[in-house]
Each structure stands twice: as C-alpha cells, then as structure tokens.
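Form P-L/3: holo structure prediction, ligand alpha-D-glucopyranose.
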Amino acid sequence: MLAANWSTRLYYSSILLLSLLLSSCRPAQPDASQSEKAWWKEVVVYQIYPRSFKDSDGDGVGDLKGIISKLDYIKSLGVDVVWLNPIYSSPNDDNGYDVSDYRNIMKDFGTMADFDALLKGMHERHIKLVMDLVVNHSSDEHKWFQESRSSRQSPYRNYYHWWDAERGKPAYRYSLFDINHDAWKWDSVSNAYYLHYFSRKQPDLNWENPRLRQEVYDIMKFWAGKGIDGFRLDAFQFAAKDTSFPPFPQGYEKNFIEYYAMGPHLHDYLREMNQEVFSKYPVMSVAEGAGKSFKDAHELVDADRHELNMAYAFEGVDIAKPEGYTLAHFKEVFSRWDSAFAQKGWLSIFLANHDQARMVSRFGNDSSAFRDLSSKMLSTFIMTMRGTPYYYNGDELGMTNARFGQIEDYRDVSALNEYQHQKNTGGDLQKFIQRLRFESRDNGRTPFQWDSTAQAGFTTGKPWIGVNPNYTWLNAAAQEGDPNSCLNYFRKLTKLRKENGILVYGKYTLLDKDNPSVYAYTREMEGKKWLIALNFSAHTAEAQVGLNTTNARLMLSNYTAASGPARKASALTLRPYEAVVFQLP
Ligand code: GLC
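OUTPUT (holo model):
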C-alpha cells in the first residue's frame, strides 16, 4: 500500500516538472489559493467544549442533549461546522482526551442515540460535525492497554511502547502532564516501563504496529459511516517515534516539539490513513500542530501529498504572555505564516481553543471599558484573515478569564499536576497560581454563560467547574436583545465572510508594518480590494494605510456611529480598539 504511493509521488513530480517548465513561459502566477476552492476553506468552524456548553440533566456536566437544545442558537451564529471535543467513553483524567472506548459515548455526555439525534439535528440545519480523534494515546483503562500490560506475551503488547526493566531505565522522555515530568512509568505487572507523553493515564499508542493502525482506521470508518464530516487529529504530530528511544540532549524539554514532532514514518501513516479513510468519505481533516517548520507544515497539508486538508500552528497563540506582547510580534508571526502559505497549502486561523485561556483576556483588554470593543476587534481579525477560522465557544460573548485564586478551584490535570510538581520541588506556589490566573486552560473551560439565572443557566445542579461570576451581566440572553452586542457583531462577521469570498481567498498584504498600535491589511481578489484596520491599543491611533479611503464603503465597524474613523487622504485615525472593514472603490 505504501509502495503504491511512490508511483503516485512519481506521477506528481512529473506534473510538477511539467508545470514548472510551463510556468516559465507564463506571466506571474495568480494567488494559487484562489483557484483551489474547497468547502472546508469557506466554512467557519465553531468549537464546542461539551463539558461546559449546556447541561440537560442537572448533574453539573454539559451533555449531548444540552447541545441539541442549543442547535438553533448555534445555527443563528452563522457558523457552518461544529468541532466537538472528545465525547467518547473516558475516565476523564484529561476531560475526554483519555479514551477508554472509541465506539461509545461518555456516560456523562449521554448515549449513542443522543449522538445520532445530535448529528441529525445538525445536518437538518446544514451544520457539519467534526469529531476529535485522540490516537497518539488512549486511556490506560482502554481494553487494549489492560491487555497490553497484562503480560509481555500479550497480543496487544505492541499496541503501546514498553521498555523491559532489566534493560535499565530508558532514556529520559519529558511528559507534559506528569507530576515528575517523567514520561516513563514503571508497571509492576510485567516489570516494564510504558511511555506517556501526557498523563500516566494516557499511554502512547505504538503507530509502528500495523494492527494498531488498522484498528484506528476502522474506528474512523465507524464514525465516518455514521455520516460525520471530519476529524481533528489530536496531538498527532507526536504519534510517530524513534522506538529505539535514543537519548536526547540535556534540557531538550524546553523545546520538546523539536524532538517529539514529525517522527519517522509519520507521513507514511498519514498517507495510509488518507487512502484508507479520507479518500473514501466526504470528510475534512485537520491536525493539531503543524510541526517545527513551514516545510513540516506544508508536508502535512499540501494537496498533492494526499495527507491532510489543514493544520493549526501554535506560534500565533503562543505570542500572548503574562507580561504582555507587542503588536509588531503579532503582525510579524501572522504575516509570515500567511506568506508561507500564499501559493500552496491551507491553515486555520484562531486565537483560542480549549487549551488556551480566553482570547479577550490574553490578546485584548477585558477591563469594563474595553472588553466589548477589544473582543469584537479580535473577532474581526479572525474572520477577515486568510485560512479557515476556528472560533471557540463563548468568545462570541466576549467571555473572560475566571482567574481562580486557589488551586482547589482548578480542574485541569496539567494545572493540578504541575502544582504538585512545584510543591515537591520547592517552587513558588503563589507565583504559579498567578501564572494559572493568566494562562490556565480552565479559564477557557468555565460554563457557557447563557443567562443571569443561577449557574449562568448552564445547569440546575452544581457545575463541575465554577461559573465566572460575571455571568450576571455577561451572558447570551442579555446580548441577544442588544443589536450592538458582541454576539450580534459576531453574527454580522460570519455573514460578511460568507457573502464575500474575498475574505476567504483574497490575497493578504500587510500595511503600515511598523505601526505599534494598528494592524492594517488588505485582501484582494479579482480586481477588488478590501481594507481591514484594527487598533490593538486603548488609545486613539493613526494608521498610514497609503490608500485613499475617502470614498471607501464601510462594510463593518465595531463602533456604533456609522461614520467610522476619521479619514484623511492616506491615513485613518482609529479610536481605542476600533475595528473597521472597508471595501475600496
Ligand atoms: C491535545 C488536546 C489537549 C489534550 C492533549 C492530550 O493537545 O487539545 O486538550 O490535553 O492533546 O490529549
């Protein structure tokens, strides 16, 4: 099967050679992304964290019936695709990212009948569903692992990575979630170590084993056969490993992606997966992580490689630090990624997800004066850039970090285990809590704020994680009736993007590059040009856009006065956090 790919690659290399020869006789190539249209480039993806979205039965945990009850709300946002975090059976060490049965629904979330009803309800509303596929690791409570650990002779032994203890301790591997940061856990049953890049309850699967790979493809076919519309491949860049486990240089964990991402045969596995699954069903595919270079990212997503449709890179979300960030850095990163994919390949655009704190608290300004404006400004950025927008639930309301002040309020395995690590190693616990208040994933996981009733209308019971106290005034019900709310602004944005392909495919050009406060850029397609200007600061700022906007049509503004910013021949004066979208004449 993998050999067949060589002939396919040969075929594509000859096409490439031919087109290179032809292109030397042609005028400059148009922006390639404009010609290669695809449905998954044109959609807006809305990410739902099921545990925190809506609880239907009062147990304090969001569930599938809860999502079903909100389908009309989701539809009203104007989004096309829902990405659901894992909903499979799981002991919930890492909120569903530790799967114990890939073909069943987590008890907290409901039943397979609920799932079928959810999918039907989405499809009736022309909303597609993307499922999270967590196959770098499983739960240690999965029957594969139970079998695998039972003896060295188990037929499932090679589903995971084992190192027999008489060989001594294997070379150090850093674990992201382990209390001791140690990814090797000794298991007494067979006197051997198993590998877990994440928590001890998330043993890494062995992708070198063709039987394991086939099991995964069968699972994917099971869900694709049910009619789902895509897969998000969780942590998949780590799936392939050098299983001789050579030592890595000391301190490598500070830059572990360099050593963990894109291991041997990863592309073979993806091509095999493509052949087995993606090529046979009308599904989209997106990888979490884009490797360590543009080359890696291209090799994941370039269409002629027949691997994945897109990936999401972390460099953009990693910019925000507790001490702040500079707009110059932000522009530089997003512009660099755009230019690397201007001709070929496709990426996603996002500023938040379930692994990040809230967008407005990290990248905007969540003070009472500017929360609303800065949140709308950031949404404008996501919805006017090239790439498929992935928009995290609650950001359409401008939800903010809960900033819990004590460890007892946190639920995330990574926060709790790192706290323990700090404690064991004499770390500064107060400083650590300060860090969590800014960057803990739990900030993005507090219950969705539906209304001002108890527990924000999320549950009638006790929520699994505290509700942000600002729900009394910051909630969907309050924003529904306000035409100028974040919520209604987001609806305008999705409509604008859907109706104007220029925002999807148009060429991106950065303007006024060194402006420390304003991010301005144009999108161009088929002779049309749009200008987007975003003030990332809390003061009035002028942008030298070098374009005459006096007769430009204001398509959208996050300020209520219809006039938009003051315009001079080639400059705009933007109010604090002002965001404007112009169509140029
Ligand atoms: C991914 C998920 C994250 C999870 C981890 C381990 O990064 O997005 O939530 O904890 O993988 O599965």
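COMMENT: The domain at 507-583 is CATH 2.60.40.1180 (Immunoglobulin-like).
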